[in-house]
């Protein structure tokens, strides 16, 4: 963290025992960098995230049920009620798929911006995807681990090429 601004450093926090040079793992929401070594309460955090996302999904469904009952009380017709159910079902399915894919690959920023409204309507799908992913790993851990390991390999490859006495280099 930067002392002046309180924002995370661009390289991210460094795991214990890591050298000060080289890439650092990026923190995940609710997990920090505990996903790297599965330490410092990683399992408890996963359980808490799974329970929290499931509770939020259940609460959201109850709120949607209240909204549906409000439409029934208003007696606006079966077509609008059906339209609302289909809209939430389709948007939730799309949000689930988009969130699930976002755990394994970086989403396209332009596509994400164009789908923002649709994904906010289908928030229940995103919550369910978060719940299901947190049963097996920290959501996004697989993507972050692959990126971190790739960055570590590239860094080690660059540093091993630099070994040797620079005064013995040939000058062209």
Could you please describe the fold and organization of this structure?
The structure is a single chain. With about 170 residues, this protein is mostly helical. The protein has 6 helices and no strands. Helix 2 packs antiparallel against helix 5, helix 3 crosses helix 4 and helix 3 runs parallel beside helix 5. The longest helix is centred in the middle third of the chain and has 33 residues. The N terminus is likely disordered.
Summarize the structure.
Helix content is about 65%, strand content about 0%. By secondary structure, it is an all-alpha fold.
**Low-confidence residue ranges:** 1-11
Main sheet overview? none
Class by alpha and beta content: mainly alpha
Radius of gyration: 23 Å
> Helicity, in percent?
55-70%
DSSP summary, beta strand count:
0
Mean pLDDT: 82
How many alpha or pi helices?
6
Give the amount of beta strand, in percent: under 5%
Order of helices and strands: HHHHHH
């Amino acid at each position: 963290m930067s002392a002046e601004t309180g924002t995370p450093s661009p390289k991210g926090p460094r795991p214990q025992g890591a050298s000060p040079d080289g890439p650092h793992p990026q923190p995940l929401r609710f997990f920090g960098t505990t996903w790297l070594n599965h330490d410092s309460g990683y399992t408890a955090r996963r359980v808490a995230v799974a329970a929290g996302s499931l509770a939020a999904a259940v609460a959201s469904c109850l709120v949607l049920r209240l909204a549906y009952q409000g439409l029934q009380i208003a007696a606006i017709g079966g077509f609008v009620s059906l339209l609302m159910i289909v809209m939430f079902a389709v948007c939730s399915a799309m949000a689930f798929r988009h969130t699930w894919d976002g755990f394994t690959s970086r989403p396209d920023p332009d596509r994400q911006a164009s789908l923002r409204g649709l994904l906010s309507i289908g928030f229940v799908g995103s919550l369910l995807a978060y719940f299901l992913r947190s049963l097996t790993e920290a959501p996004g851990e697989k993507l972050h681990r692959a990126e971190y390991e790739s960055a570590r390999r590239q860094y080690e490859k660059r540093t091993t090429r630099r070994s040797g006495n620079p005064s013995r280099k040939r000058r062209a």
